[in-house]
Amino acid sequence: MTPTIISKEQLPLNNKLRKPRVEKMHRDHINSSIEQLKCLLAPEFLKQQPDSKLEKADILEMTLNFLLFTCCQSRLLQMCPKMR
């Protein structure tokens, strides 16, 4: 097989065509992960604000709050064994 020779003119065009596709894959991956978090957090969120739409930033903020609460709670249980 003979090696394919790519001219300098073709290379940037190929990258320009590929970049939007790669960016879309990244966005789809992020959106999929946020949707999974939304499914995990939805029952808790509906208790607080039943008529509100979950925005991506809200989902991320609720996840962060949950993780911080869980972390603090486990540290508190380690420090105060009588609370178990």
UniProtKB/TrEMBL annotation:
Keywords: Nucleus, Repressor, Transcription, Transcription regulation. Residues 14-70 form the BHLH domain. SUPFAM superfamilies: HLH, helix-loop-helix DNA-binding domain. The keyword Transcription regulation applies. The keyword Transcription regulation applies. One of its GO terms (molecular function) is protein dimerization activity. InterPro entries: bHLH_dom (IPR011598), HES_HEY (IPR050370), HLH_DNA-bd_sf (IPR036638). It is found in: Nucleus. GO terms for cellular component: nucleus. Pfam families: HLH. It comes from the Eukaryota. This is BHLH domain-containing protein. It comes from Cyprinus carpio (Common carp). The lineage of its organism: Eukaryota, Metazoa, Chordata, Craniata, Vertebrata.
